[in-house]
Amino acid sequence: MIPPRRLTLLSLLLVLALPACGGDGPTPPDGPTVASVVVTPTSPTLEVGKTLQMSAIARDPNGGTVTGVTVTWTSSDAAVASVDAKGLVTGVAAGAAAITATVAGVAGSQVVTVVPDQCDNAVTVVLDPGEHQAYPATECLFLPSGSAGDYYRLAVYRPTQVENPSDVSDITVETSAVSSASQTTAAVAPPPARAASPPASGAAGLESDDAPRLDGTRLLRDVELKRSTSRFHMQMLEREIRERGPGPDGVLRREAAALRADEPRRADPPARLELTSQFSCSASPVPQTLVAFNDDIAFYQDSAQRVTKPIAVSSAQEILDYYDAYVKDMIPQYWGTVTDLDGNGRVLVTTSPALGDSVAAAIFTGDLRTSGSCAASNQGEVIFYNVDLILDMEDLSNPGYLALPTLAHEMKHLVSIYNRFAAGASLSPLWIEEGTSEISAEMSSRIAWAANGGPAPGEVITRDKILATLCSGGSCNFTKETWGVVDILANAIVQISTHPNSLIVNPNGAHEFHSIYASGWHYHRFLGDAFGNASSPMGDAPFFKEMVDSTTASGTAAHAQLTGRSFDQLFEDLVVAMSLHQTEAPPPARAFSTWDFVSSAQIFAAPAVLDPPGTYPWPRTADASSGQLYDPFGTHSYTGKIGPAGMHFYDFQSTGSGSGMEVTVTVDEPARVIVTRIR
Description:
- This protein has 679 residues and is of the alpha+beta class.
- Among the domains are: 9-116, Immunoglobulin-like (Sandwich), CATH 2.60.40; 217-429, no CATH class.
- The protein is built from 16 helices and 30 strands.
- A hairpin with a 2-residue loop joins strand 9 (95-103) and strand 10 (106-115).
- The chain is elongated and about 100 Å long.
- Mean pLDDT is 87; it is low at 1-28, 181-208 and 255-261.
């Protein structure tokens, strides 16, 4: 390599002094006097091989802009930085050069510092199919061309636990083809040892393109409800911590376990009672009217609301029947016994106008405390519903059944939040609390689906199995038993395929249907599959039950306690599992086992957000117009935004020509890149 030329300090000073030597400057024949020329940007730095557009503004003696003038651009050392007639500077070699703009004999300059190309020290990626390697995002990577058809998937992710929705970074991924074998690289990263692969899941492949598909527009209302509900829950929990704080003070003690099904029938609940339903410790109780009940739940409705929006007894009974058949036995298996703090033997379910139109359901954490700690506490187990969620079931033309799996979701909250309070521990982050509650909703739906001809819990879910249940006679319709499964799948498609996305928060600028319900569920479904033996019927129940036990740490510390791996390691495990999921490469050691996301996510024909280009995990290189799922090795630039604990994927296939391809990533820390060899 030719040593870079460098300007001496004296020569730079002489060049930069040129404008001052011009005095007031000459007067153009047909214009005002040019007194100075201002060149921008100031003191720029440029990589070898990259370009930078510079600008020049001519000023008159009063500081005004002189227009309509001709600018001549020159470089003090074109072997370091060249410049064309329009001020476009190209870095040639490391060093410094003064770039000068001259107008009517008056000059202005800036020194451009040229630094070595980041890829002068690229790390060569050497992987066999099915292998992966992680790198700092600051590393320049070199993918060798190898043979035509060699296929790589790059994942850029930001492993942080700081729930800051404003932490949204610009991200740029640039690739550059290297045409000859003269490309210089530094240390070659050795391929990681191949881990033992688990048995194949047996998931079916994609059906033919003419397979029926669903219109998921109806489900997007559920997604928005969940997003709004998570905001409501966050506000309520923050108020709970601010006003009372976590810990044992004021927490109701478990007075009696919920009665067993084989014990004598409970007495009928009162036809009317009063409950605080405003989610505030200073609120007053309001009348509630009994609608229906069984031995486990007494279903009420706000009495005033019942006059204007009455819930049919049949709808309340349908929720009770769903609980009795598909939730009642699952909750103690997966999460633990539902408490009976008020000794009435039942969980109370009612509606609350305070939820408005945008919140699906909630429990009031103040109800788990004594009246001395929270004056308006109901001192017992109460689940509050948005009345419209229940009335959706009565829409004869387009019924919705989110109310059914929601009961399993909220029952899990009753167990896990009480356990946190009783242990004097802090509450888990919302993405964990909601994500595990969505596991509860999913499992209730899987049990209901299995009882009505669907695959047993533990079997892999594929598109074939979903459509076999929902489509017949040329039309497709949702069923109440599968609602929880299909609904969470729609949530996950939006969360993963849109950007900026995040595992831990809804980041600023995210798609309106991005939801931490989905991200938290997807992450915990991976944990249950990879560490909890979920491929056996209800095999992951002990794993999740221990996660919310009062003796287990809260938050990601619980994940570390149960898996022996840190959050960063588990996040990397997840990214690798997504990268290799249902590909032709050998599967990773830790993988999804109960879902074939590649096929199952292709059940929707509309709306567009549920049918993104490509397939799971929806790499940014997929092109909807051409149908191409990858980009060939070459020169490309991809820009976008990524949230905290967000992820982007990019696919590249070699043509076998040239030496290979350099890849550089620009993104805010913390950030990592995982390269996975698919083929």
